Fold this protein.
Amino acid sequence: MSKITVTINGKAYLTEPDKTILQVATENKIYIPTLCFLEGIKAQGSCRICTCMVNGKMMTACTTPVNDGMEVVTNTEELEKLRSKIVELLFAEGNHFCPSCERSGNCELQALAYRYKIMVPEFDYIYPARDVDAIHPKLIIDHNRCILCKRCIRRKKEPENPTWFVFENRGNKVKINFDKEHTADMDDEMAQKAMDTCPVGAIIHKEKGYDVPIGRRKYDKNPIGSDIEGKE
Amino acid sequence: MSKPIVATTSLAGCFGCHMSFLDIDERILDLIELVEFNKSPIDDIKTFTKKCDIGIIEGGCCNSENVHVLQEFRKNCKTLVVIGECAIMGGLPALRNNVAPISECLEEAYLNCVSVQANDEKIIPNDDELPMILDKVYPCHEVVKIDYFIPGCAPRADLIWNALVALVTGNEMELPYEVIKYD
């Protein structure tokens, strides 16, 4: 396959054309923050955290394919501020009570807030009225924490990997719900898998939690993305 | 040169942030050298006796008394620092914000809850002496202007110490990744 050259942050990289900016950056140890993107599921570019300057325009790195001579900038002050404000908006929009959340310390939204050293969101909290759905034998859906990234819904639809969650309602009433048929006979392993697709604490595996002590959780010592940047 | 004067208070909080403050251990001896305390639970001074330089606030505003104390702090302190998640986003007291109107919360607490006993006269406390409960719990910065925010539940003692020393000495604050936590 013919190789193409992509410039990221002023440095040229040789790569293949059927990749996205995010893939090329990650392979070359450049961290672009993501939230609605998960390895192995189709990218949709809805959270806009991975926004980069591509040939002078703002584009999402997870959905934009690379082409020859493309110039990408991932880390200007403007972009970092944009990302940090998106995180602040998400915190103001939902009910994110970190001290009482099972995912605290392993939460990607929280980890991004730590990375950007957000002390307080600039925006007023909305405190929306939302429910907790605990009717399923293995899972809890806490709508207070859901950021509607659709990661749980976008999982690859294969016979051995069926859809477990669906969107219901429209507009600002939209929320995730169980696919009752496919989640009826869920075991613990599947429940854990469902929980792991969620970037925040909206999908919680029942009868389990707080099992890693403070100080040893995923984002306690190292910021999100430090594994990609290679500076552990 | 006179020492900077510090006041602290706990509004709708659990005093955990004050506990964390005391976790600075032997550095408390340095602290006494560095600052003078005024209104604070630490020295039990109940009302402001002079203007202060730094006011440290734990907890959000859940009733009229919290709002009054917070406004007093704003009037009497040059710089206000809020510490902890309750002061920043309402914290656990704010769990009631999205659940039900305050009337339902009070009815649940005093009348309908299964553990309610010996309230045959169906009384919900409503004395003039009691502070009035607000419709929801407000973060401090939605009530008065706040200058600095220290997150955590409770904030790590090192973070509070670094912030205070930075404020008193006028130096830039050290913010290592490990100390900024929301839990």
User: Anything to note?
Assistant: Residues 64-76 of chain B form the longest helix (13 residues). The helical segments of chain B are 16-22, 27-34, 64-76, 85-89, 102-112, 157-169. The beta strands of chain B are 5-10, 36-37, 52-58, 61-63, 77-83, 133-138, 148-150. The two ends of chain B are 38 Å apart (CA to CA).
